[in-house]
Design brief:
By secondary structure, the protein is an all-beta fold. Helices cover about 0% and strands about 40% of the residues.
Length: about 210
């Protein structure tokens, strides 16, 4: 694209807004927001990776309201962790973040207002904490189907729902409604069905880790 240094195209992710008027470019330690027509830089987000990594890695997507969600992952002694952040691209402020285990290589935004990735569905991060005894917020009333398969845990929203023993950890997985299918190196496929109506729903506040 004219006006973008070709060097930035190598190894750095580029994501367009659905209406094509903004583009997000991931650099080593930041994410730059530019107008697509003028290529004027509008914002630079300080998406610094974890101390154990030399750069941010992962995926990005614009939400329907023009916010930006990005995921960066890093290796720890207990395995790979993925940190999902939500940004206000006008102010450059971080709205909130989630941390789950697993390697998220693709991120997109669903029509229902959730984040979609290879391993399932996650809620949008929020800085709004859940007051004790408070019921689910309006945006979380349809959150019962938010299941995510990590490398060691199955998550409901961002809450750890079930630990996956080594025999159940899969090379590939897919979620469809209330059914989870796990594929293994042995060729076996396991299918787990959940009673989504019986799962509790709570508001997911900011990850303070």
């Amino acid at each position: 694209m004219e006006g973008i240094n070709p060097a930035h195209m190598l190894g750095d992710e580029i994501t367009f807004h659905s209406q094509d008027y903004l583009v997000a470019i991931r650099h080593d330690f930041s994410i730059e927001i530019k107008e697509t027509t003028s290529l004027i830089s509008k914002q630079r987000l300080k998406a610094i990776g974890h101390a154990r990594t030399s750069r941010t890695q992962g995926s990005m997507t614009f939400t329907a309201t023009g916010q930006l969600a990005d995921v960066s992952w890093y290796d720890m002694f207990q395995g790979t962790l993925a940190r999902v952040r939500l940004w206000d691209i006008t102010s450059g402020a971080q709205i909130g973040k989630h941390t789950v285990d697993g390697h998220i290589s693709h991120l997109s935004f669903s029509d229902e207002g959730h984040l979609l990735c290879d391993q399932g569905r996650l809620p949008l991060p929020s800085t709004v904490p859940c007051a004790e005894g408070e019921g689910p917020s309006m945006e979380q009333t349809d959150a019962k189907g938010l299941l995510y398969v990590g490398s060691q845990w199955l998550y409901h929203g961002v809450d750890k729902l079930m630990w996956l023993p080594a025999a159940f950890r899969s090379t590939a997985s897919t979620l469809e409604g209330d059914a989870l299918a796990l594929a293994h190196d042995s060729g076996d496929i396991r299918v787990i069905k959940f009673d989504l109506a019986g799962l509790p729903v709570r508001r997911h506040g900011m990850d303070r880790s």
